[in-house]
Amino acid sequence: MMSMSMDALRALVRRLRAKLADDIIENRIDEGYSISKLSAVQHENLQNHTEQNMEALQEENRLLRLGKEVLLKKSTTDPLTGLYNRVKMEEVFLYEQKQFFRHGDDFSMILMDLDNFKAINDNYGHNIGDNYLRELAGTLTEFFRNVDMIGRWGGEEFLILLPRTSLEEAKKMALRLSAKVSAIDCPRIGQQTASFGLATLTRGDTLSTVVGRADKGLFLAKKRGKNRVEITV
Fold first, then answer.
1. What percent of the chain has pLDDT over 90?
2. CATH number of 86-231: 2.60.120.280, 3.30.70.270, 3.40.640.10, 3.30.230.10?
3. In what order do the strands lie in the sheet with 229-231?
4. Cα(207)–Cα(179) distance, rounded to whole angstroms?
5. Sign of CA dihedral 38, 41, 44, 49
6. How would residue 58 be classed by pLDDT, with cut points 50, 70 and 90?
7. Among the four 75, 91, 117, 135, which has the fewest Cβ within 10 Å?
8. Mind listing the pLDDT tens digit for each residue in 77-118?
9. Residue 91 designated active-site
10. Distance between alpha carbon 201 and the CA centroid of its chain, in Å?
11. Which of 103-107, 149-153, 185-189 has the lowest mean pLDDT?
């Protein structure tokens, strides 16, 4: 074996120590890289899992909102015609009444009742009568403005709330509507007519009193031969 001087031996030890230190550092870097790489995979999996949970939560929220909308619609609309029901019309009236008291704008209503509708159900059956009511509801929806509220008040009776509409304007609308209703030609039963009672809101009115006046007008229209528009004060 070749003999080495003390200085050469010391130099070799230093190189070996340096090489060992480099190897340790490199191994630690490799280990750190592996750990970092593993953490990235775990992070990606966690992120994917979180995104899936968020999507599921969003879908649950969407279904919940949809369910609430369905329940709200069922609670406020008439199932046969799709128009507002009596409960919703009472709610709308209270809102429009507040607007009337606040701003003083005209606020009128039309109470409409089909003439001889009972005979349709008796002679042709309720299915035919229901089909006619749905056809009529479509006509009402197309006829009135977006601000007007249309509801099935009960049976073959319909209430239309007319914000910012005077009694004279409401009368003109009712006369035009009467012609529209008479023009509906439903299979088997042909053309039908309706009678109309009108009223306008005053400062001392409640829903009961103003609808009561419209109902008196409706009664008068029936008494005078039907297919008429009448106003009582």
1. 64
2. 3.30.70.270
3. 149-154, 157-163, 107-114, 194-200, 229-231
4. 28
5. negative
6. confident
7. 75
8. 999 999 999 999 999 999 999 999 999 999 999 999 999 999
9. no
10. 28
11. 185-189
The residue type of 134 is: R
Contact assessment for residue 126 and residue 185, using Cβ atoms and an 8 Å cutoff: no
pLDDT at 164: 95
What is the rounded (10 degree) CA torsion for 140, 142, 146, 148? Answer: -20
Q: Which of 55, 90, 156, 157 is catalytic?
A: 156
pLDDT of 60:
66
Output the DSSP codes for 170-209. Answer: HHHHHHHHHHHHHH-EETTTEE--EEEEEEE--TT--HHH
Pair 207, 170: CB distance under 8 Å = no
CA distances from 202 to 98, 105, 128, 211, 217 (A): 12, 10, 40, 12, 16
Sole residue written with tokens 């968020």: 54
Q: H-helix or E-strand containing 109?
A: strand 107-114
CB 173 within 8 Å of CB 229? no
